[in-house]
Amino acid sequence: MAEIAGLVLGGIPLIIWALDRYAEPFEAFHHYRTSIETLRTDLVLQNRQLQTTLSNIGLDNEPTIDELRECFATKFPSISRELESIIQRMGTAIYVLMKKLNIDADGKKPDGFAQYEWRKVKHSFSIKKRNKLVADLRHWNDDLRRALEKPEIPLEDNGRKVQDLKKRFNPQRCTSIRQCLSSLHRALKSGFGCACLHPHKAAISLDWNAYQSDLTRSFEVAISYQTNSQPPHESDSWRRLHLTLECPETTKSVPELLTPPVTPARSPSPSSSIRSRISDFRNVRFLSSTPPPLPKSPAASILNLSQSSTAKSISASVEITNLCKTVSTKNGPWLSDFLKDPDQDQDRKFSVDHNQPEPPKITQIIPLKSLLSIHDRQMAQGGKPYLSLSKKQRLCIAASISWSVLHMCGSGWLDEQWSEKQARIFLERGPGGREIPSQYPCASYVFSGPTTQGQTTDDQNYLMSRTAIFALGVLLIELCINKPLEEMRTAGESGPRDPLLVDYPTAESKLDEVYREAGDSYGYATERCVKFAFEGRDIHRDFDFSQFRQQFYDAVVAPVQATYLMFT
Asked: Quick one: where's region Disordered (predicted)?
């Protein structure tokens, strides 16, 4: 038992080391490399979970088998044999994988390891075997954690505000918004038919109040452009457009991927005082006194994004094919034209709604994280401390970002590293000419030349969801503590280039502070995102599945929004 079980503690790092090298000859094989990276990430996280479990019962990261046996016998005498059996089974699985990868105990490849032998390694990574290995390790790790530790994250947040918000979730509305946002992204991409040397940027406002309403709302999108007289090194100019979905009679729905059916959300009771406070919450604006429009009736029907409150005939309108030219033309005839989703199965059209009030002028777009801890930095540098965000503002942004991940993850709007590259906020020209942050953050996207996108695999979808949700967890920590994660790392801390592996130790170490600063509901949501602690098989923990969207809303969106409600 000692020889095999010892491989659990020393074998996984050797396999991770080998996977880094096994991926190198297959740079050209994108899907295979993705599979290796997925396996490597799973093994790293399972290894860290095992180390955390052992550390919580007083053992070092790599205890000997004798130390394990003594600890189990002393602290858990009634189940010590069962605990040793779990360790032995984990060791056997690692031993089998090491043999498949031709790794010896010293981490060396055997003599005469020729190039053609990589094919043997490649063929050893069948999807079925890989998924079974990871599932077994996760199952045994969870058994150990449940037996040796107190549960860290409850299965359900029982807070009254959270429970009330859960009842308000509408799965059909969520599906409709996701489809509409994907169509809008395709329509914008199709609209940039210009021959400009530089790519264009678009930024969609993350107005999360609109996500809760059964009324159709136009999407606020800012488009970058440059004028002929503009110096080449000067920042881009921006123009806001309000785009409203049209042609309800031709809009088609996309078949939905379903896991076991989700119980429909119950209608809220008008007599509930808590629900009344949540209704009042829609009027809260931390930088503006203008409240968003409310539904006319609490019995409003399920959202149909095809129905527009500003519907008009577009039979005489013209499709916008050169968006660059049209936005740079002030008050041009294009105001009555439309963008079209090139996907014929959708056939959605977005008309420009010019009946909206004139918005504040955008001076520039900056990374959202640049406003964190800005007061201390700007005071030291003599800058603009008035750009700093209050705790109430940061929590509102956290709610907005959580909603946006629910509706945009898996679409063209968000990639895996969205929190670093795409989470932005506008600086607007406020009263007196002072720059102020926009009310809501935005998701920016760079529309470059035409690209060919292949069909994504289940592995890729799962990995993208996991990475995007981890990025949300990191951002929730940063918004709570008001400091970028880079500033939280200890001096000299370094690691692999993969952000998931670099940031995970730091993010995990800050969870206790998040609980202290923002409370249990916000802390539970953040910890779930950091640890990807969601139920279901890996293949189903993807935003393409309605059941996972429901689970993500219940476990993340509702608790974060409920935390913000406490500050209103």
From this structure: 254-275
